[in-house]
Amino acid sequence: MNCLDYFYFLLSRKDYSASELRKKGQEKGFGNEEILEAIAQIQDRGYQSDTRLVANSIASAAGKYGKSAVKRKCLQKGISSDLFEQVWEAEIAENLDSEAQRLAELKAKVMRKYKIEAWGKVDQKTKGKVLNYLQYRGFNGFEMWRQWETEDEEE
Fold first, then answer.
1. In angstroms, how far is CA 71 from the centroid of its own chain?
2. Is the pLDDT of residue 127 over 70?
3. Nearest residue to 148 via CA among 132, 136, 131
4. Greatest pairwise CA separation for the chain in angstroms
5. What angle do CA 34, 35, 36 make, to 5 degrees?
6. 113-134 b/e with 16+ CB inside 10 Å = b?
7. Tens digits of per-residue pLDDT, 59-98?
8. Around Cβ 71, how many Cβ atoms within 10 Å?
């Protein structure tokens, strides 16, 4: 099995970043030049794209995880921080309305889960639980809390 066939085999199972393919090829014992040629061929044919991989990661994490969690996952896959930021900005600009809707759904879910009536009248123990819940999912808990608190005061 040559390097190109091996990469086709891998990509038929799941999306890999170019960096991950390079590592897989080296582990399999292929030469650096052969790996780079195979990656270039696969990218030319549209079978592998780091941009598409980042966009898919952002889409699958939408509403569940925040920017920092998705970015960490992409960095672990060997995707550059600049590429992530570029795709993130494009996705956010494209999905601004749906992002606001998802954050409203998250707020409603948190209010239901922790039985919150008003954001200004929450005890410290519950506040800590909410902040941990948000941070675990990659959101800036304090920022979200302040935003929701000011929204609550305006209503």
1. 6
2. yes
3. 131
4. 65
5. 95
6. eeebeebeebeeeeeeebbebb
7. 888 778 888 899 999 999 999 999 999 999 888 777 766 7
8. 20
Q: What is the pLDDT of residues 19-44, one digit of tens each?
A: 999 999 999 999 999 999 999 999 99
Looking at residue 96, its pLDDT comes to 67
Average model confidence (pLDDT) across the chain: 90
Which residues 6+ apart lie within 8 Å of 105 measured at CB? 63
Tokens of 33: 């030049």
pLDDT at 82: 95
Please give the C-alpha separations between residue 140 and each of 2, 40, 76, 79, 145, in angstroms, as whole numbers.
46, 38, 20, 23, 9
Euclidean distance between CA atoms 63 and 30, whole angstroms: 40
154: left (phi over 0), alpha (psi -120 to 50) or beta: alpha
Q: Are 66 and 102 in contact (CB under 8 A)?
A: no
